[in-house]
Task: inverse folding
């Protein structure tokens, strides 16, 4: 896997892998698993929750786009999320897809994402991360 060169192609590879042993954008040399250990972040199988009203406005926009089936602002939106770190409930490969939550003031995609499971255009099994897949909160309806 490509890592540390901070190019769009390797960032895309990071997302498709579920960022299990790769790097967050803009942080060369810092491996996600090392960041998790240092921060005491979420362990597999432990999820908090957040209600939609508590999410940033941009996350609500992303949820609306998911329900509509797009159009999404980034070509990488909707790509497979493998959940290789098993931070989300274990499901068959192909179940989860990841979408960008815009971050005001950034020129790139930022760290915020929504990962949804199940059929496209549904938001019943979605999770929010604001730290590039280090931790997740289940989005409650």
Result:
């Amino acid at each position: 896997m490509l890592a540390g060169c901070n190019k769009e192609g390797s960032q895309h590879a990071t997302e498709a892998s579920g960022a299990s042993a790769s790097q967050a954008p803009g942080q060369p040399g810092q491996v996600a698993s090392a960041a998790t250990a240092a921060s005491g972040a979420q362990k597999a199988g432990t999820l908090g929750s957040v209600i939609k009203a508590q999410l940033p406005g941009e996350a609500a926009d992303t949820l609306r786009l998911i329900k509509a089936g797009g159009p999404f602002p980034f070509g990488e939106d909707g790509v497979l999320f493998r959940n290789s770190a098993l931070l989300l409930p274990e499901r068959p490969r192909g179940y989860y897809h990841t979408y960008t939550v815009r971050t005001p003031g950034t020129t790139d995609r930022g760290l915020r994402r929504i990962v949804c499971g199940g059929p496209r255009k549904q938001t019943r099994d979605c999770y929010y991360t604001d730290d590039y897949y280090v931790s997740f909160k289940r989005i409650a309806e």
Q: What stands out?
A: The first helix runs from residue 8 to 17. The chain has one domain: 42-140. Strands lie at 48-51, 79-80, 96-100, 113-117, 126-129, 137-140. The first strand starts at residue 48 and ends at 51.
